[in-house]
Specification:
The structure is a homodimer of 299-residue chains. By secondary structure, the first copy, chain A, is mainly β. Chain A has two domains: 105 residues, Acyl-CoA thioesterase, double hotdog domain (Porin), CATH 2.40.160.210; 140 residues, Acyl-CoA thioesterase, double hotdog domain (Porin). Helix content of chain A is 11%, strand content 34%. Chain A is globular, with a radius of gyration of 18 Å.
């Protein structure tokens, strides 16, 4: 495939990116791949269900933790008086299988400012992800204090993971996630992809959905776990399964590209942390996350 | 009180600090204030209970969130095959009252590497804190990568909160926490205490228990929420109740002082985040935390 054919920036036609399959081509109103894949329905008995989409994997058929958390967040919001997830903490008990899933929301205290709940996402084999959710109503006000966006190379000079999948180490399968979340890695943190690992576990990328759907709080929850493990920056490839992930959504993001920066503070004893900060296209900090994951073995 | 009389660094007698009441003066083996205040017992029916100590408050009788999380972590460890809390995510549903509390631990998947569980801490009025806990066994190995400790003023040049409580704004009550956790704030981040607020919401301090008990993973959980809100650095005083707090313990800390740095990334719409990193006396990163809290009003 010619890279120029699938580059939404150069083509200026982000909605027509042909590598993203239409999840529901018969729908009267076009639905973004993300909204379709995270849809939560209420059954006749009142219970909430979803159909986990195998296309949001991180390789080897394992569904992305941020994607699963977005599904749980949608369930939390459905059962809350508030529209936005502002704090989510998830424990990943085991890999969730693609296909039908049940979402059980247990409401906690709720008030004018915020509401607490817990959410259990279960597949046919039982609970896979447990989530503590805090929902609230994010406003449009300017921040009193906000960390400025770091310097980053322009999008058009960045390294597209999807377009360069052929460069991946042989043992790494190309994740479906990289076809749905368009990540453009700052060349200053992309040396690992070209055989030149760095000294610091940092990866910085522009990010948006490949089909052009604009970011919102639910999207930020997926973005907050959508980069490769930062151990890859050191040339240590391999899967880094998430153990616990906390995502904070701080503001409603503006349309367009987000800048996502992930950084590890310590890699030791088979464990790694991943610390994300996300700024929207206006340069405002809109989300943060931190996770503890198992560190990839391998060189 | 003469500051020199209660300064364990100058006095070299950290175990005899007279401002810390002995929690159990009749005990044959001296028990640290922290171990006594976080003790968890198993009742005849097998349930776990604790007695929340009113002395670990942050002002106005409100118990410190890190202290409550240490109690929950102790319960999680008691019911786990692993001895150390490595990831804890807590939702603070409402202020917990001092006095008897019940701890209900629901075990999740457990294996050779880690174990999951959830813990509910309830006082007489019902659930106050819900926690997702991951326990594991931390080793003694050197890290593959670790963020270096930032430069900080020597302990003896730092600003003791306990010794300078008389400088606090009239509306701020002196927290019991500051008598039990000895915090020495780097003068470079202590301007707010002397009427000279800074431009950045950062507070950095040396920290250890006032009675000289050395740090361990359970102690780090309390340290990870023991500094004043970083909004105070900007001169915005007032209480910042924690909504959700995640603590990661990354290594077994060496004896002695820890360096604790707290930083807010965004203050907006009545919300603030607090991002902690903790290094031990050898300069190794041993813990991280992030919380979402309500931002103090007031000037």
């Amino acid at each position: 495939m010619d890279a120029a054919e699938v580059d939404p920036v150069r083509a200026g036609r982000p909605g027509t990116l042909s590598v993203v399959p239409q999840t529901d081509p018969t729908a009267a109103v076009p639905t973004s791949a993300f909204d379709a894949a995270t849809a939560v329905s209420r059954g006749d008995g009142g219970g909430l269900t979803a159909v986990l989409d195998p296309g949001w994997d991180v390789g080897g058929g394992v569904l992305n933790g941020g994607y699963l958390l977005s599904v749980a967040a949608r369930a939390a919001v459905l059962e809350s008086p508030h529209p936005h997830p502002v704090a989510l903490s998830a424990s990943y008990l085991r890999a969730a299988a693609a296909g039908p899933a049940e979402l059980t929301v247990s409401p906690g205290p709720a008030g004018r400012t915020l509401a607490h709940s817990s959410v259990v996402l279960a597949d046919a084999s039982g609970p896979a992800v447990t989530v503590q959710a805090t929902t609230a109503t994010l406003g449009a006000g300017a921040p009193d204090f906000s960390s400025p966006m770091p310097a980053a190379s322009p999008v058009e000079e960045c390294f597209s993971i999807a377009e360069n999948a052929h460069l991946a180490p042989a043992r790494v399968t190309v994740p479906g996630l990289t076809l749905r979340v368009d990540s453009r890695i700052d060349p200053l943190t992309a040396g690992w992809a070209l055989g030149q690992p760095a000294d610091e576990p940092v990866i910085r990328a522009w990010m948006r959905f490949a089909d052009g759907r604009d970011p919102d709080p639910l999207a930020l929850v997926t973005f907050a776990d959508a980069l490769p493990p930062t151990s890859w920056a050191l040339g240590r490839f391999g899967w880094a399964p998430t153990v616990q992930l906390q995502v904070l959504v701080r503001a409603l993001p503006a349309p367009g590209w987000c800048l996502v920066e992930a950084r590890a503070s310590e890699i030791t004893g088979g464990w790694i942390d991943e610390d994300y900060r996300i700024w929207d296209s206006t340069g405002r900090l809109v989300a943060q996350s931190r996770q503890l994951a198992r560190a990839p073995r391998g060189a």
